Fold:
Amino acid sequence: MKELIDFDGLFEEKLAEYIRMNAGKYTEKQWENVIPKLYRQFGDTYIPRAGATPKQYYAAMSDEELAGTLARHVREGVPVPDFLCRELETRGCPAALVALLSEREEEILTLAVNLAGSHERAFPAYFDLLVADDVSPDVKEAVCEQLKNNADAARERALTCYQAGVEKELMLEILSRCKERDDRIYDILLTEFRTGDDIPMHASYLAAYGDERALPVLLAYIDRDDINYLEYQELKYAIEALGGEYTTPRDFTDDKYYQEIAAQSALPAEEKKTDA
Structure:
């Protein structure tokens, strides 16, 4: 396996020299645009230690070498160069990258999920992560985001998991992003809205799914006297997202959520910033 090279460290050395030689030439805002350009140029700069440019160094690796190098960077505490990540992305989610999804080191998993993206080849491993007990909520959320971006391809697996009672909320989130109409999904989202505890969240799933058949149910619910201000806001958004409208005046001045939001809105700008 090739040497593990800290290309980002080498770039930082060159950047420090460049900044020293161009002191006062750019404003702080201009440097924010200059530095990324310099980094891209560095990718095509010959590095004697590597015997190639950073881009060439990784392009010459096999899929297995790239994935192994990515893992080594993490385990040995060497910054992962963007050139390595971009090369892996261009390979179209190779099997070696999918294999990293069986790791249980969070940083490796997070990188692998981001690089595999919404490619269907990664989906079996993604669902294994979602149902695993030893995977962090952050990683599961990252996986869910990728599945949502290609939800129609994930539909059948998500339905199976939902029906088995596995990570139901995550499965609802994925299913709500499906673009192809499917009565199974509509019925599930509507049932969860009617019977679930989290009204705002389940209303948002109906809004995301976009089936206007849910409008009468949402309109009937928003008219209830026992909903709170947060529920009202999400229900109103869902109704409008589905092409409907709710114009009945409501008074939430005694609602604790309304009072909290009103109090926050009344804070001076600096105090808001401090609380945030």
Q: What stands out?
A: The chain is about 65% helix and 0% strand. Residues 158 and 171 are 5 Å apart (CA to CA).
